[in-house]
């Protein structure tokens, strides 16, 4: 290892920025040289650029600007762009986050170039290979040198797949670090035109929006919910046209808004009486904020948000009734039952493991169980 090793972080979409910020800060405090590659997978300024400002992330060393496209076209563009930047930067370690196509491409590029990698949020599984993200998770974990898990069950899934214990580290959830840091700034009154009592809906998964039939069924259910409580709907660029064609537009009970920055979005969620989503990160954020969450999916790679949080899985057909019950019951996560190590200190844990690894130190079992 070089005397002054370089760590590169590959970020492509909103959740990546939120997870990376605490790790970047932790490594900075330890004096580790680092840089960010922004792939531009989320090319909308409201889905990416604003997050750099909200989260205090440094300017990227490169912005690939790949934009949207089919999985094949987007991943191909990422492979070409990342290979060029990684070869030029000559990092000693590349850190990837989550399960987006940018993560998959970075892992493949580094595996071919012989560059070590670390995966933050390793071991999550929905056990549904029909989800593109599930394929990305499996491939990424199989090729990573360091695997940082957010929950104990993630470690067991990795072990079942044959990952050596020495590679795995239980560190908690760095997304929660960012949420804790933002809490003092959260205030739904900063957002104009929001009703006193409202719900939030965020919808973008392919299974929900990529066909007219699926989008129509989902929008019909969401509009039924809007008759129980006004809904604020930040529209993700993915699926915007399909959802609008199915009738998810401004109207009675529905306020459609552009994507929000990190603090504004969390402010909206914190003040909500109910959240309807298909996003993984939102399941985690609502768990920590004690907001009832209905996830319109048949499965989740984050089951801990169901067992230890406010999240429930629902079908579109069951959504209106589930919303009625959630609004009647309310929700708050019982004290002492939050997921283990979701304590706002995951970024420094990850940074300490990376710094020790860069020095060639043998990591103890304690470091693999969040006690380094």
UniProtKB/TrEMBL annotation:
Q: Which family does it belong to?
A: Belongs to the UDP-N-acetylglucosamine 2-epimerase family.
| Alphabetized InterPro entries for the sequence | UDP_GlcNAc_Epimerase_2_dom, WecB-like
> What lineage does the source organism belong to?
Bacteria, Bacillati, Actinomycetota, Actinomycetes, Streptosporangiales
Q: What is this protein called?
A: UDP-N-acetylglucosamine 2-epimerase (Non-hydrolyzing)
What EC designation does it have? Answer: 5.1.3.14
Amino-acid biosynthesis among keywords: no
Q: Where is the UDP-N-acetylglucosamine 2-epimerase domain?
A: 32-354
Q: Membrane spanning segments where?
A: none
Keyword match Isomerase: yes
Supply the Gene3D superfamilies for this chain.
Glycogen Phosphorylase B (3.40.50.2000)
Q: Coiled-coil stretches, from where to where?
A: none
Return any one Pfam family short name.
Answer: Epimerase_2
Enzyme class, one word?
Answer: isomerase
Q: Which UniProt keywords apply?
A: Isomerase
* GO MF, one example: UDP-N-acetylglucosamine 2-epimerase activity
| UniProt source species | Nonomuraea dietziae
